[in-house]
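Chain A, query sequence.
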Amino acid sequence: MRGRLALLVALATSRVAAADSNDLVLNRLTTRMTDGNGMLTVVPQNLEFRALASELGVVLAPHLLTPADTVGFDGFQFTVDAAATTIDSSGAFWRVREGAPNPSATTDGGVLAPKSLRTIGFFARKGIWFPLPSFEVGVGAVHLVDSNTWTGQLYTKLGLAEGYHDLPLPSLAVRGAVSRMMNQRELDLTIASLDVTVSKHLGIGGTWRLDPYVGWDLLAIVARSEVIDATPNIDSNAPGQQADNMLNYVFKDQANIYRHRFLVGAKLQYSIVQITLEAVFALAGSSVDDRAGTSDPCQPNSTTTLCDAKDTAKSQRTLSLSAGFDF
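Chain A, predicted structure.
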């Protein structure tokens, strides 16, 4: 009986720890070279690392999904959010996915990922009077579907102009937010955002309210690598394999990645029930990690890490739906 119980516990534990198709295997982002003596050299691909962090950062960026008006001093909101964000499914860097059909692909062109990645999230928002009137704070968690990845998200919003519903004046707000990725052992990813939103409240039949809004958002994506085992299938503690640890590596810290997003959405509310639909367009990446001592741009399948990596992430689109209660 005890043996069966131990077996069931072991199976359950292994299932929880098992990697899903959208989990990351960063040791695939390397160029591997063997010399005449059979010695292996592993070169991390900074160009691909930057593009991966950029596109994944947009997928896991702080959710917006609110008009400029705050929920009010005594207001409280709880929502469930769902979103789908496009990615460059043929980008060679997406071979990093556990479920990539061709983990050894090193050139663009094949299908290595779905056309979009989906997330679901849960958020709570509360209006407060401190440190200024028309102030709102929010906290939530977002899960990347088909992965073990979660992000914790936090934001603060200040309404610069709101409440002029009977006048032809829009509401205006600024917001700062941060999203922190969790549960990926080899990659630390932090995404900060600053956005400006304009919206207008419209009453419908005295019972419904509609709040269309537009905005601009700046993302700052900070990607940091943990120690990566280049040869996870080799046990460095086994006899004769002690030198295998010498192949472990990290991606050197890169300059922050910046992405611009533009958004349009609308919130429809009846009584305390609300639904928000939003579309976001992120411009293609263009920031460069400028390394000291070189002006050479990084190339695909590079044999050196001494090069400047430009963000090659393509433009991305996000479609989001939020439903919940405003109290």
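Confidence is low (pLDDT under 50) at residues 1-16. Residues 223 and 252 are 10 Å apart (CA to CA).
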